[in-house]
Automatic annotation (TrEMBL):
GO molecular function annotation: DNA binding; DNA-binding transcription factor activity
Annotated source species: Paraburkholderia monticola
HTH gntR-type domain ranges (all copies): 17-84
Keywords of the record: DNA-binding, Transcription, Transcription regulation
Pfam families documented for this protein: FCD, GntR
Species classification: Bacteria, Pseudomonadati, Pseudomonadota, Betaproteobacteria, Burkholderiales
The name this protein goes by in its record: Transcriptional regulator
Length: 234
């Protein structure tokens, strides 16, 4: 265990919504972006003070993060941001690849011009970020690209399922994103997927998707070398 997450500033929540889901969403985002790195101790008292809450909604948020494997909860002791579990990452990848191969098949058979234009716009926005090294916004657009495909294929709830199970592989991808050439490869892969969908070429769309989703997993050894304390085999 290492540093605590400190903040003396009270973070305002939307009082029209329940507090626990908002705390969960904010902490999850901070963990996935690596603002809260593996090993960071999360104090229930400090979090309650930060969000201006009692400890009950904070406890509920931490328990939900624990269910996703993003924190380790030691009763009566501490809650710690978990290491990135490689086994969990591999299983999340398997699930996502299995679903998205069928998603791109469906889209290639449909060849929806409005969707293709929407996806190209997302790619264009990602391209604008390449020189800015704005990895956070780039990641959000990456998620938007894939979510748009799920929605167009008529399976938006499967996107929600994949997101819930992808915390470990999302953190691996976030570690990999700053590597030279990675963001450009993501944009290139997205363009190849859309080109194949536009041409109705199912095999090409699936091949481009397989290559796209495997990029980070092919670099696990290098990521482990660069961040030895962040990864666990599980």
């Amino acid at each position: 265990m290492k540093n605590h997450a400190h903040s003396s500033t009270v973070t305002r929540l939307d009082r029209s919504r329940h507090a626990a889901p908002q705390v969960f969403e904010r902490l999850r985002e901070m963990i996935l972006s690596l603002e809260l790195t593996p090993g960071t101790v999360l104090s229930r008292t400090e979090l309650a003070n930060r969000y201006g809450l009692s400890q009950t909604p904070v406890r509920d948020a931490l328990m939900k993060l624990g269910e996703e494997g993003l924190v380790d909860i030691y009763p009566q002791h501490a809650t710690v941001v978990s290491q990135i579990n490689v086994t969990s990452a591999l299983q999340a990848h398997f699930l996502r690849r299995s679903i998205e191969l069928e998603v791109v098949r469906t889209l290639a058979e449909q060849r929806n011009a409005a969707l293709i234009a929407q996806l190209r716009e997302t790619i264009a926005r990602q391209t604008e970020l390449l020189d800015l090294k704005n990895y956070e916004q780039f990641s959000l657009l990456d998620q938007a690209f894939h979510r748009q495909m799920y929605e167009a294929a008529g399976v938006p709830q499967l996107w929600d399922l994949v997101r819930r199970l992808s915390g470990h592989i999302d953190r691996l991808r976030r570690l990999h994103l700053p590597v030279e050439g990675k963001t450009m490869a993501v944009v290139r892969d997205h363009a190849e997927i859309i080109d194949a969908i536009e041409h109705g070429d199912v095999e090409a769309a699936q091949a481009a998707l397989r290559k796209h989703l495997s990029g980070t997993l092919n670099q696990i050894d290098q990521i482990r070398t660069s961040h030895p304390n962040f990864l666990a085999d599980g």
